[in-house]
Design a protein that fits this description.
mainly beta; six-stranded antiparallel β-sheet; elongated
Length: 80
Amino acid sequence: MLGYVAEVQDLGGTVTNAVTFACDPNGARTNKTETVSTTSTVSTNLTRYSYDPDNRLLTASTTATNSTALHTFAYDYRSR
């Protein structure tokens, strides 16, 4: 399920930055793709999200051009 797309255009109408979100049937974000274009390069960052059965965020993993970052989340019995 597609969440939404946001774009930034230069004065000539060329898209220079775009962010696309995808969501699961519960409305939780599953992917975020960021694309940045310049006159000489295009770079893309992809972030993937995972959730537990209670729809709480467990991980956010971002892959960029030269790096990868993984963030993990934990909750106590009160979901804090």
